[in-house]
Specification:
By secondary structure, the protein is mostly helical. It has seven helices and four strands, in the order E-E-H-H-H-E-E-H-H-H-H. The protein is 34% helix and 6% strand. It starts with a strand and ends in a 10-residue tail after the last helix.
């Protein structure tokens, strides 16, 4: 088993850490704390707009925002990016000092500041996504669909169970 992105590019998970043998998402209690926190955050972020698009268009023109296809940063400090703006983030991270914020939640606000101040990747700066052995990578859920079973599991947990897992799900919207 290898590393896999789920729903959005960026965060990588050990496949066996999050998926049961039948391909379903493991119960949260059976995941390590980091994987559990990131999976729960992903369930809240999939389908959200790109941060850079949102900074440009805001709520008043949100329909012009592209959906996020990549996620970078730490939970509760993540940056969501569409295909058009991912290069801006990678450039900022590699060339404009973002790398020193790796592992810090502040990364999100600092990238937002840079982008809002007109920061962009230079013309010709491109990303190349490399898959070493695409045949070995399992199919990830469609980014427009929720992680199967996760919302139901979270909705069924009582406060004590959530406290035991040390999860903050206040910003999740269960419909």
């Amino acid at each position: 088993m290898g590393k896999v992105s789920i729903g959005l590019r960026g965060w990588r998970f050990d496949e066996e850490a999050v998926f049961a043998a039948d391909g379903t998402v493991k119960p949260l209690a059976n995941m390590n704390a980091d994987a559990r926190e990131r999976i729960v955050r992903l369930s809240a972020m999939i389908g959200d707009p790109c941060d850079a698009c949102y900074l440009r268009h805001g709520d008043e023109d949100i329909e012009r925002c592209n959906p996020a296809r990549a996620i970078y940063g730490e939970p509760l400090g993540e940056v969501l990016l569409c295909d058009d703006h991912e290069a801006d983030f990678v450039y900022w991270f590699q060339e404009e000092g973002g790398k020193r914020l790796a592992g810090e939640r502040e990364l999100q606000s600092r990238f937002h500041e840079w982008f809002a101040d007109g920061g962009r990747s230079p013309e010709g700066f491109e990303l190349e996504h490399v898959e070493e052995d695409p045949g070995d990578v399992p199919e990830a859920p469609d980014p427009d669909e929720e992680l199967p079973g996760l919302e139901a599991e979270l909705e069924q947990m009582d406060e004590d169970e959530l406290d035991a897992l040390d999860l903050d799900i206040d910003d999740l919207d269960f419909e």
